Amino acid sequence: MSLKIGGQIEKVNGRQLSYSEFAEKYLAQNQPVLLTGLMDDWTASKHWVSANAQPNLLFFSTHFGKSKVQVADCDTREFTDQKRIEMSVSEFINHWLQGSRESVLYLKDWHFVKEYPEYQAYITPRFFTDDWLNIYLDNYGMHVDPDTDQVNNDICCSDYRFVYMGAKGSWTPLHADVFRSYSWSANVCGRKKWLFLPPQQVNLLFDRHEQLLAQYGTKLVNMKNTVYDIFDDISEIKFPGFKKAIWLECTQDQNEIIFVPSGWYHQVHNLEDTISINHNWFNGYNLSWVWDLLLRDYKEAKEYIEDIKDICDDFEGLCQRNLAANTGMNFKDFFIFISRLSLANVVELYYLRGESSSESSIWHCSAIVKHFALNLASIRKIALKMKSEAVQGNFGIINLWETLSDPKFIKLCAGLGRIYSVVHEEENWSCTVKKVLMADFEKYGSQVCSPEDLVTFIDHAVSELSSNCNEQSTLLSVLYEIQPRQQK
Ligand SMILES: O=C(O)CCC(=O)C(=O)O
């Protein structure tokens, strides 16, 4: 059965696109786009590609050959993904050079930046720098084991900045990205074919059995149980909606970057020997996608073990452990994450206001102030959602004083400052590690323990920051524009 193709992904010259156009058209609308012209200065584009435009495999074995990496066997399915094998980069390259017909191997999810921080292979394009996920993971682990209070590295991975390398014919099965994050993927070398299904049509990919169960209320839909390879002969009995799906297509050439929006299912094929750089990320624009997924996975995890509820001492704790194991974070991790980020945004605003004595100060030009306010608005909205969706449980405690003096948090603030000076091209704004002035925070309670507390903290901070200040309208109007009726 052939796929119905509804159109191609729009291609835009990234050098002629402003950040606000990108944010309005693609981030906010959750639409894919193919961007050109953004990779010219990359070291990777020089070192990783040979004169004949093929991957420079020798460069990899010479410089990074000892790295241990995950390699997918593209011909072997294991549950919902391809079978993974661990090997060294040199072993992988030897296999590639031998041109083995037995199996096509695909090196995936190589944490290249983490492993080689000194080697600046590329510069993340400005459009993708507003990345809360990786900046957070640069300083904190995502999941903390409740029993030991230690970061659990089995579940939480160190970051989501990857290198992918595969010979012609290697491919990635149909999936939506981790946490329903955005992703961007840059072809340093080679070509890829992408097939996309918008989130509005995702229900067409469900297994009929799952749909029936969902319809009769006996089980929630397990969205993970979807089609694996859209080019397979898909059973009409098992997936009756599949033939109605209308796909968007894209061929991505060398030096082109694709932006993949939240929740869009996609399947990817390397049409030639290809090396790409891929990041997963989220920010204020798609945070609600992440929360909605977490809530859905939680309900699913709970439903799954409902039978043992009565004999289980800590049923809720078990649900949260399962949630973290399946999704990579649980409610507490997510809550701590958004609380630390709110505090970091508030610190930045205090810092900016402190700098605002001179006429030329950044507070007056306000694009950055507005961005921090938008961030707080989106976090506030999610906290209200968490509260209204009657989610209960142990959210953990953020102790403001401890957090403010923690070197990890100070680094998070510095990183956040760096992000927005890049996004708004404010190179003059000092991005040195910021000293938090504790006196600014004396008026706040010392703890944030629930979504309700977080909303109160944000409201209090914005009202404090707006007092005695000519610019009060920027902050207040941005924060409450999204919920106009709540403006005091
Ligand atoms: O390039 C690939 O094979 C898969 C990449 C992908 O799925 C992504 O970046 O979201």
TrEMBL record:
Record organism: Hibiscus sabdariffa (roselle)
Domain JmjC: 113-298
Signal peptide coordinates: none
Protein name per the record: JmjC domain-containing protein
Record-linked SUPFAM superfamilies: Clavaminate synthase-like
Family: Belongs to the JARID1 histone demethylase family.
